[in-house]
Amino acid sequence: MTLALMEICDVNRNILEIAFASNLRDFEDAVQLACAYAKNVDAIVTRNADDFAGASLPILSVQQLFEQMNNDG
């Protein structure tokens, strides 16, 4: 069920180049951020927002996501 709700980002050379050029310390987080930019997502939801410091899109905790969802509808 979960995969039916998700779109998978292809990790290709362009994504990896963007990740390498990022200012994130953790490469796997940098790949996630590069995919988020490529797919034009609204936000990243994570337990470790500090890992995405400097990202130019919102980084939300699960609680923040639920709060936004409740406020929007």
Describe this structure in words.
- With 73 residues, the chain is mainly alpha-helical.
- It has one domain (3-72).
- It is 44% helix and 5% strand.
- The chain contains three helices and two strands; from the N terminus they run H-H-E-E-H.
- The protein has helices at residues 13-21, 27-38, 62-72, and strands at residues 44-45, 59-60.
- It has a two-stranded parallel sheet with strand order 1-2.
- The longest helix has 12 residues, at 27-38.
- The radius of gyration is 13 Å and the shape is globular.
- The mean pLDDT is 91.
Gist?
It contains 3 helices and 2 strands. The chain is mainly α.
Query: Strand pairing plus helix content: what structural class?
Result: mainly alpha
Question: Major sheet: size, sense and barrel closure?
Answer: 2 strands, parallel
The coarse overall form would be globular
For the CA atoms, what is the radius of gyration? 13 Å
How is the largest sheet built, in terms of strand order?
A: 1-2
Q: What amount of the residues lies in strands?
A: 5-15%
Q: Helix fraction?
A: 40-55%
- As residue ranges, the low-confidence spans are none
Q: How many angstroms separate the termini?
A: 23 Å
How many independent structural domains? 1
Q: N-to-C SSE series?
A: HHEEH
Average of the residue pLDDT scores: 91
Can you count the beta strands? 2
